[in-house]
tRNA N(3)-methylcytidine methyltransferase
Amino acid sequence: MEMNDFCTNEERTLTSEDKEKLLNQNKRLVSDFQARKLEAEAQKHWDLFYKRNETRFFKDRHWTTREFEELLAVDNETPDIQNLLEVGCGVGNFVYPLIEELDVLHQCNKFFYYACDFSPRAVQFVRNHPLYDTKRMLAFQCDITTEDIEQHIAPGSIDIITMIFVLSAITPEKFLMVIKNLHKLLKINGVVLFRDYGLYDMAQLRFKSGHKIIDNFYMRQDGTRSYYFEKNELAKLFLASGFEILSNTYIHRRTLNVKEGIDVPRIYVQGKFRKL
């Protein structure tokens, strides 16, 4: 199995077959009634997702310090603790591999970790983990599209926010509200580290008729939803919310296994955004 990544500012070039798949998605859209129902029951669908899959579905994210050097840029000479917030922590596939890596580097005491998720069941899995320690971590349930998070975290107190495959699960009408909430939580010069699904990712092209809600926003079989981002659209959201763009690019990943006939083109959008 071979995996190749490269960064680019260019969108994926669609083949005629790809274009036909996108056109077919428009033959039958999710009804307005169903779309409203999906929004109203979003928490229920994610809780059921974690009930079915528990901690088995997502792989641990050991790549984050390679992509986001800010997670390692800790000054061991100063006693100051930095505050890190993971938005959409799931069952801990980001935060616990990070803790383990920083423990090895003797930087573990430089972060206090906040971890929140929409799903109460996911948060409970995080709390049940052997590494969960309230002296250096707080996991809690909240809806990041509201101001609920300020019940747990003081505005202007966070150094780094990570948001990895999270915004895509939220209705686009609330994107701007979410980014503005992140801005309020960050210190001046604090950063958001972001990765999510990119426009024309393989998973987007696989959706059949009856799953499209609006452009680039889809319903999965289990009732959860997924949005596919165009990078300039993402830049506008952050710029409108008081951030400057440190980086913002597509990551094209191709997984090839010639022997088994596997060719999987994935597209992500990845960025770093700093609070002005």
